[in-house]
Amino acid sequence: LKQVFNKDKTFRPKRKFEPGTQRFELHKRAQASLNSGLDLKAAVQLPSGEDQNDWVAVHVVDFFNRINLIYGTICEFCTERTCPVMSGGPKYEYRWQDDLKYKKPTALPAPQYMNLLMDWIEMQINNENIFPTRVGKCK
């Protein structure tokens, strides 16, 4: 289990919401509804009086944290030697393009692709223009 949380692996620490903010309160509400065994449709419905963008942002960050945790548990089994291609089965190969270092779709080993993907997602989540964190203090 120690290797799962190795900082040199793709696993990243959870993104957190600042206590006292509206998003923190929305996150607590989302967690409570998801953990209570309620109908999923009801659990993801926008609470009355809440901002849809904030609600979506909370779920995007939560989804990233969950995927990150899952990937962290399997990444040691997928090395550049054992997973030389990022694929979705025999018919699909994923190629990386970021218009910075990789200007054209480029075939990469799965671990390298995943590292780039997780870095990119984290950059998006941390971009204040896309996911502002100062949406206001909770009333």
From TrEMBL:
Residues annotated as binding Zn(2+) are: C78, C83
Q: Please give the InterPro entries that the UniProt record associates with this protein.
A: MOB_kinase_act_fam, MOB_kinase_act_sf
What keywords were assigned to this record? Kinase, Metal-binding, Transferase, Zinc
Q: Which domain of life is it from?
A: Eukaryota
The answer to whether the entry has keyword Metal-binding is yes
**What GO MF annotations does this protein's record show?**
kinase activity
Name a Pfam family for this protein: Mob1_phocein
Q: PANTHER family in the record, alphabetically? A: MPS ONE BINDER KINASE ACTIVATOR-LIKE MOB (PTHR22599)
Name assigned to this protein: MOB3B kinase
Record organism: Piprites chloris (Wing-barred manakin)
From the broadest rank down, the organism's phylogenetic lineage runs:
Eukaryota, Metazoa, Chordata, Craniata, Vertebrata
